[in-house]
Amino acid sequence: MTRPMPDGLTSGDNLDFNQFPDLRGHFGPYGGQFVAETLMVAIQELTAAYERYRDDPEFQAEFQHDLTHFVGRPSPLYHAERWSRKLGGAQIYLKREDLNHTGAHKINNTVGQALLAKRMGKPRIIAETGAGQHGVATATIAARLGLECVVYMGAEDVRRQSPNVYRMKLLGATVVPVESGSKTLKDALNEALRDWVANVDDTFYIIGTVAGPHPYPMMVRDFNAVIGQETREQALAVFGRLPDALVACVGGGSNAMGMFHPFLNDPEVALYGVEAGGDGIHTGRHAAPLSAGRPGVLHGNRTYLMETDDGQIIETHSISAGLDYPGVGPEHAWLKDCGRAFYVSATDDETLAAFHELTRTEGIIPALETAHALAYAAKLAVTMRSEQNIVVNLSGRGDKDINTVAIREGITL
Amino acid sequence: MNRMDRRFKTLKEQHRKALIPFVTAGFPHPEITVPLMHQMVAAGADVIELGVPFSDPIADGPAIQKAGEQALAQGMDLGRVLAQVAEFRRDDASTPLVLMGYMNPLEAMGHGRFAQRAQQAGVDGVLTVDVPLEEARELVPTLRHHGLHSIFLLAPTSNSERIRRTAEVASGYVYYVSLKGVTGSAALNAQEVAERVALIKRQISIPVGVGFGIRDARSAAAIGACADAVIVGSALIECLAAHQADPMQMLNHVAELLGSMRQALDKQPVMIKE
What we know:
The structure holds two protein chains of two kinds. Chain A is an alpha/beta fold. Chain A has helices at 37-54, 57-71, 81-87, 106-119, 133-145, 155-160, 162-170, 185-198, 216-224, 226-239, 254-260, 289-292, 330-338, 348-362, 368-381, 402-408; strands at 26-27, 30-34, 77-79, 91-96, 124-129, 148-154, 174-178, 203-206, 245-249, 270-278, 294-298, 300-305, 341-347, 389-394. Chain A has a six-stranded mixed sheet, with helices on both faces. In chain A, strand 9 (245-249), helix 11 and strand 10 form a beta-alpha-beta unit. In chain A, helix 10 (226-239) packs across helix 11 (254-260). Chain A starts with 25 loop residues before the first strand and ends in a 5-residue tail after the last helix. The model of chain A has no long low-confidence stretch (mean pLDDT 95). Chain B is α/β, with parallel strands linked by helices. Helix content of chain B is 49%, strand content 14%. Chain B has helices at residues 3-13, 33-42, 62-73, 78-91, 103-109, 111-121, 139-145, 160-169, 190-203, 217-224, 234-242, 247-267; strands spanning 18-24, 48-51, 97-101, 125-128, 149-150, 152-154, 174-177, 208-211, 229-232. Chain B has a nine-stranded parallel sheet. The radius of gyration of chain B is 17 Å and the shape is globular.
């Protein structure tokens, strides 16, 4: 398992992963603040506000209160006993983020950022969304806090995800279809950034993943780190030691980063991020920048991207809209280069098989995003012994995906 | 001193303001870009900003976004932009050229290789919209090593600390973005711009250009009263888009638009105050 180390490091170095990012938001060569001057002051204001409240006991108490009473935390660590036995390898545990309010891990971050927006006196919230999960989570907390909410969504996604569009509208949000570029998540992010530039005085931009300019990758990670912190305590309580492996799906990578971060300095815990393999990495039709892309600059940070030789961002393909993103959080890029985490992929077909398997074996319908992690966990489990433990981040529930699955399988509802 | 410094020095001696049109390379068609550049020079352009199309132009409004998309759809890439620059240089050795775009195409080519090829082609300056001061430490020395100016943006929100730090790394000219928003946004307030430009000029000795919101002779003259250069982008792109079906007509309309701005700028009584 030796890998080439990044410049200036040898494999003998013991990196303290809690030291990242540096003050300017760099994870080694990745991350940073690649935004136009028109946004820099807003970014600096946000950085200063987050630095101030991140260790503020009152802010943290309010955040914890909302996580407990509004989100419904802690989420259970569930032993998928029947599935584990059927596979005949390691024991698989599921961190049940699907049981959170709004059905996914996304709410952890939106609660944190919305509380920050309130502290900063910003009455207007904007967000981008792909499948609509982050948009729903943002609209939800905006409704709870009485904030105006505008969600940018690719016109193509608006068409594909109409129930979530209606959900956001019920919650009082304005959904703006984005007609530029490929009309998907990356274009929604572009448009939200443009809105922010024009309305920096009264607007807070809630980014939904561990990407974007610093401080977003750090901040979104911190708000989701509750997943890993709980997993750590629950693992110690349930099986008396840390898990042998953690598995999570990676689009932008917020659920994976939240799960991994509290374990980064525990080298005995193996970390696996599972990207969307689409039709297969070899076909080029996928959404797996860490597996098949190369470093570049997009949406405010340097990271692995899916791009042409000329540096134009290319369209991605995945059965799950939530992983359909050509970039990935910069900390994942760094963990890949350091060899601390392994990044693999699951194809659409493998994902669908895992979706059905968990549904029928454990009575849990996972989100298609999550099913990527399950597909890889099943492969990993059989290479391990039955007294070893894998924790899979069950990042979201699959109700939103039943139409996609039905259509794919030729079933009319 | 390269073409750009010489041009601004001459303008200053003549008490004239620079007119800087922006066009997206390859829009509306790759074959028209070089003739269009020559036409703009004939109509009174002092410096040309040539936009390098990028798939995700986060700082641009609808007009320039669409122009970039159309150029990319016709196969434009950074290599072809540089080829257009080289072709332009065969007939024009004196008009300064700035490439304006986003970081990722430069990353894909490699900073060093890009700088070398840009210098060879005849580029004088580079403006990477998504590279603020904080991320410029590697790129600026590489560009300078190849004789290329680094043009930086300043915004209404840039405080005096940022203006001071910009003065340390910027060369050629600085580009003051006169509006909060993306390119092609609504009308600008000339009085407010004049105050900001005066503030910037107290800390920055190189020329100050103003862009965003300049659409016609009148707004050009209003901005020319305070700035060293007037930059026109979206209005020009909209003109190209409206007349793209007829290239001859299009070139005439461009000449008319820039010509009216040139005239308005040159009529401007130059205030000499120290």
